[in-house]
Design brief:
By secondary structure, this protein is an alpha/beta fold. It has six helices and seven strands, in the order ββαβαβαααβββα.
Length: 189
């Protein structure tokens, strides 16, 4: 990427133009340069958690982790009042079933660019309870299947699953930690 240049010499002979320049070249990627110059769009992302299984506490933990890490990466996350409009039963059921058109109008009208639909699941680990020195540890595996969807067209941009495993003092705690691990990987991706 050329940061700046100066023309040192310019010649024209027989229809061929030759230009000699002195340039300052950066090895920093163009995207980073444009970002520093403020020339990239600030994307607004809506994170929608969907699940039939994990506890509300697990979903809230995953949602908080996704939002936190997405913000750290420089994106804007839509505020919760806009997401309340998506929680209306008719709209939420459409989202849950993979039909995102119902959310498109709400999201576009509120300046959202991308909707991340995070479908959470948990299962007890193969050895779901261990005991050491009289203390029980519950184990769970959790995961998120994340779909990135354009808010204006409902076009699928990407889809990927992330898994995590963790232990805790209760099954609920183990599930929460496992989903948080999956959410951390998902947000980083």
């Amino acid at each position: 990427y050329i940061n700046s240049f100066q023309v040192l010499e310019e010649k024209s002979a027989e229809g061929i133009v030759t230009v000699k320049i002195q340039a300052t070249v950066s090895v920093e990627p163009l995207v980073d340069q444009l970002g520093k110059l403020g020339l990239l769009k600030d994307w607004t992302i809506a994170v929608v958690m969907v699940s039939n299984g994990p506890s509300q506490r697990s979903l809230e933990a995953a949602n908080a982790k996704l939002n936190e890490l997405i913000i750290k990466q420089g994106f804007r996350v839509v505020n919760q009042t806009i997401l309340l409009e998506l929680n209306k039963p008719a709209v939420f059921n459409e989202i849950k079933e993979g039909r995102y058109g119902a959310a498109t109008k709400v999201l576009k009208d509120n300046g959202v660019d991308v909707m991340l639909i995070a479908k959470a699941f948990t299962t007890p680990a193969q050895s779901s309870v261990t005991e050491a020195h009289g203390i029980q540890t519950f184990w769970a595996e959790g995961g998120l299947s994340i779909e990135a969807v354009r808010a204006d067209t409902s076009e699928m941009l990407d889809s990927k699953s992330f898994k995590g495993a963790a232990g805790g003092s209760s099954q609920d705690m183990a599930e929460t930690k496992a989903i948080e691990k999956a959410a951390s990987e998902g947000a980083a991706y």
